[in-house]
What we know:
With 352 residues, the chain is an alpha/beta fold. Helices cover 39% and strands 16% of the residues. The strands form 2 sheets. The protein has a 6-stranded parallel beta sheet with strand order 2-1-3-4-5-11, with helices on both faces. It has a 6-stranded mixed beta sheet with strand order 7-6-8-9-10-12, with helices on both faces. Helix 7 (176-189) packs parallel to helix 8 (205-220) and helix 9 (235-246) crosses helix 10 (260-272). Residues 1-10, 12-17 and 66-73 have low confidence and may be disordered.
Amino acid sequence: xxxKKIPLAGLNAASGANVTIKDIATRLGLAYSTVSRALADHPxxxxxxxxxxxxxxxxxxxxxxxxxxxxxxxxxxxVGLLIPDIQNSFYASIAKIVGDAATxxxxxxxxxxxxxNPERELQDLRAFVVSRAAAVIITPSATPDPETISLLSGMRxxxxxxxxxxxxxxxxxxxDAAAIRAATMHLINYGHRRIGYVxxxxxxxxxxxxxxGFASAMQAGGLPQEFMSVxxxxxxxxxxxxxxxxxxxxxxxxxxIGSSSLTIGALKALRSLGLSAPSDVSLVGYGDPDWFxxxxxxxxxxxxxxxxxxxxxxxxxxxxxxxxxxxTGMPASASRFPATLTVRGSTRPWRE
Length: 352
């Protein structure tokens, strides 16, 4: 059967911005899907058909619409990052890692600071849905709105630091139980017996893991767990908790802090009491911004695998965007990255 000849003379290329795939299909007597595949260079479309479609598209002045080039995803070049706090050095570092990787791939990072507010979290996620973000990374609040969970189920997404059981997306987290256990065992091995813990609320999965790590070490050492306080990861909470612990006549001789923000509050509390580490108390912090090395003789701390976590997470999402990997739903498990105990001058063996 001879190919259908379409006269090209007289076609108005100036109106090309308004020419659609349907217009081309109608002129050629082809199905819409055939023209769409021909323009996408689909291998199942014959070379003759691809050439006829392209020739007519050029003659008609057809201009591909960016979002329409991917009819399945209709995605924008945006990766959304929803985090509770940008002042936290960990989240700031993650934002840079993700942003740099996104830029290298022609994508843009859009940042949302939720402050662990479920309403704000939902509002910003809705904005990413409306803008058809290519992917979303979220540190979920303790009680995300049911709509938040529903919206995430239909998106390429990953959870960061925390994993919520209702969100069926892979969680990229720190092996917090092992990290806090190692920090606590460090103080026990230094001879400390009255050890306090100030950590993140157990409303978050990471808070549960960190508290379990502390409890496990104390139980292994046969020590009482009488100095424990958990709350929101804000410096103000740690300031209050550490101030209360260190004002007791039987105050702890060692402190393990379970959050970067809480570490700042703990240091402020010691200063307000005229105390210092390690002279008055051995202190293990959490996270490792550059300035931790400048506190006294340096702050013993749990150094986080920021680069490894950020690289893994954005690489996984980019593979999904490229169609090289299927979206992963992991409600009961997570990709855990080990942290490192960095020993500096804020801890020392216990002395009478």
